[in-house]
Specification:
The chain has 244 residues and is α/β, with parallel strands linked by helices. It has a single domain, classed as Rossmann fold (3-Layer(aba) Sandwich), CATH 3.40.50.720. Helix content is 46%, strand content 16%. α2 links the parallel β2 and β3. 43% of the residues are buried. Bound molecules: NADP nicotinamide-adenine-dinucleotide phosphate. NADP nicotinamide-adenine-dinucleotide phosphate binds next to α1 and α6. It holds the Pfam family adh_short_C2. Its EC number is 1.1.1.100. Homotetramer. Belongs to the short-chain dehydrogenases/reductases (SDR) family.
Length: 244
């Protein structure tokens, strides 16, 4: 059944930042399709979203799966008018020890997936003469962190990609922006030991990790009409860790 509500697609909605973004967009009145990598994760999302959305299985490394998912959404609910590219992992290592597989995997999950998903939804957005593409980058695209050459390169690539696309699509009223989170309390940062977490906190002006909701609030703004004249930018949400 085609939705009267605008359809938002949030990748990696099963946990952490993506879960908070999906819930916020539902509160904002969108119909949300949230992805997880497993059937069980997707089912949990379908149950949690009830009539306000649905879960779907997606590995963002799989181009054919991206194509099939967006076609399915378009057919069942209507065009994706808000795309939040959030899915991501880290595979940290010093470059001397970094395998080519770990380099490729991070570039595929972050940068190539953003290319594929953005390209796939543009047709629907162009037709609607409205679109919001919001890419979750990272402070490490700007602020050096040893052991994250792959991840930093991918995130910096996403930001440069977003600026080009913002220029290309602006005349259709499609905006393309990034949010660069600092240290946010999720499973991704829970892996860090207490000593590193303490050192990280000391670098943050607000002296604490952010919450997924802090990023969801920024997405809510960039998706809204209040942000209709903002495109090609990076919104830093980092508690004063890095000041652009
Ligand atoms: P998280 O809690 O570890 O959650 C990662 C999400 O991505 C999960 O929903 C996971 O799905 C999904 N995912 C992982 N690999 C995937 C793949 N190959 N295909 C599709 N989905 C995949 O991570 P997070 O901390 O919320 O991070 C979310 C985004 O924010 C990422 O892009 C990350 O780089 C960025 N970020 C995070 C921080 C931070 O401090 N946490 C800081 C800066 C930027 P499953 O549950 O099915 O595994």
């Amino acid at each position: 059944m085609t939705q009267e509500r605008k359809v938002a697609l949030v990748t990696g909605a099963s946990r952490g930042i993506g879960a908070a973004i999906a819930q916020q967009l539902i509160q904002d009145g969108y119909f949300v399709v949230g992805t997880a990598t497993s059937e069980s994760g997707a089912e949990k999302l379908t149950t949690a979203f009830a009539e306000n959305g649905t879960g779907a299985v997606l590995d963002v490394r799989d181009g054919a799966a991206i194509d099939a998912l967006v076609s399915d959404i378009e057919q069942k609910y209507g065009p994706v008018l808000i795309l939040v590219n959030n899915a991501g992992i880290t595979k940290d290592n010093l470059l001397l020890r970094m395998s080519e597989d770990d380099w490729d995997d991070i570039l595929n999950i972050h940068l190539k997936a953003v290319f594929r998903l953005s390209k796939r939804v543009l047709k629907g957005m162009t037709k609607a003469r409205f679109g919001r593409i919001i890419n979750i980058s990272s402070v490490v695209a700007h602020f050096a962190n040893p052991g994250q050459a792959n991840y930093s390169a991918a995130k910096a690539g996403i930001e440069a990609f977003s600026r080009s696309l913002a220029k290309e699509m602006g005349s259709r009223q499609i905006t393309v922006n990034c949010i660069a989170p600092g240290f946010i309390a999720t499973e991704m940062t829970a892996e860090l030991n207490e000593d590193i977490r303490k050192k990280m906190n000391e670098q943050v002006a607000l002296n604490r990790f952010g919450e997924p909701q802090d990023i969801a609030n920024a997405v809510s703004f960039l998706a809204s009409d209040k942000a209709s004249y903002i495109t090609g930018t990076v919104l830093h949400v980092n508690g004063g860790l890095y000041m652009a």
